[in-house]
Amino acid sequence: MKNKRKHTRLTFEMSAAVTFASGFSCTGLTKNISFSGMYVECAELPMVRPGEPCSAVLTLAGTDSFPLKFHCEVVHGYGTMVALKFTSQENDEYFERFLNLIIVSSPDPEAFRDELRKNPVFPD
Q1: Class of residue 123 by CB neighbours under 10 A (exposed 0-12, middle 13-18, buried 19+)
Q2: What is the mean pLDDT of residues 55-82?
């Protein structure tokens, strides 16, 4: 079975606060993250539908350093886990730091840089 993902997942914990279009919010930790989305485990999660818009604020677990806000859409939700696809972000400087954090945390930084060159996160 061929992997359809444009970006490799990286096991990485960041604090995440997610607010859904319904107004419900949850907080949790990312279980994995890529350049184009993340998988978050929340303490409590409402029923969510694929394609539902939401926003997410990410910070390094245990810090308040460079919070990064993404606009997202739900890919799927199950139990207390939700997969989100990034649709846009709000701060270019922090987003650049986020990309670099993923690259330097990866097992093969050069492969991740190459992946980003071939598949931009938000193509023009």
Answers
A1: exposed
A2: 86
Instruction: Give the start-to-end residue ranges of the domains of the chain.
Output: 14-111
Superfamily designation of domain 14-111: predicted glycosyltransferase like domains (2.40.10.220)
84-95 burial string, b = 16+ CB within 10 Å, else e?
Answer: bebeebeeeebb
For the stretch 70-87, pLDDT in tens is 999 999 998 999 999 999
Residue 33, beta-bridge partner list: 10, 38
Listing DSSP states for 93-108 in one string gives: HHHHHHHHHHHHHSS-
Give the tokens for residue 54: 């939401």
Angle (CA) 43 100 13, round 5°: 20
Q: Which two structure tokens, joined as six digits, stand for 96?
A: 């650049």
Q: What phi-psi label fits residue 51: left (phi over 0), alpha (psi between -120 and 50 degrees) or beta?
A: left
